[in-house]
Amino acid sequence: MRLPRDTTRLSIVGLVVLALLAVGLSVAALRQPGRVTATPAPAQSSTTVPPTASPATDSSPAQSSTPAPSSATSSATPSSTPVTPRTVVIVGDSYSLGAATQTWVGPVAEKLGWTTVVNLSSPGRGYLATPRQCDFVPCATFEGTIPKVVESQPDVVVTFGGFADGDFSITALTADYYRTLRASLPGTQIVALSPVTTEAGPAPYWLTLHSQSIRDGVEAVGGTFVDRGQPGLGNGEALSAEAHAAIAQRVIDRLSQG
Question: Considering the entire predicted model, what is its pTM?
Fold first, then answer.
């Protein structure tokens, strides 16, 4: 009869051991989630900090750098505009010579704000014709005068002539002159006036051809052509006061258009 009792005792002991194991496994299972939960906590805090610090770092330089350029620009612009000088070189023949107040040059300079006018005109100077006399060197054609023009580093160059060239083609000469002038002064405004005659009546046909050659040459380099038109504007020898006034007004009107 002892054998059954021993078997019963062993069964009870086995059940107790199984119960203890079950309890141990349950405790272990309850502790396991705690370890998983504790691990992400540091990860969340480390991820959150950089975004918080990053906007603060980016916004600080932006606030300090943005006002500085705007204030510097606004203060520089008004001070430079009113005092900007404009140097203008006149390249012409006898029709541009004389006191500024007595020629077309004076009224134009006053109206358009030409602060410095360098007059490189000489009697008989043209695209083809060499002057009869000069007050400066080189005493040459319009193209030969370009080195003297460049010395002044002008903002504007106005060329007025062509009548002295007579009944000879100046098409190639005008093209060369304005190309060379543009290459020498790439940022300068280049202006050309149509040639005129002081003689009464319609202008000779060749003067009309000169006017077209001059227009083509100056406009090819981005310059401005001012067409005064004909007939004659003087007494056969010199431009009258009325003629100078008419030329001045035409130049003012054309250049004021931009």
Answer: 0.67
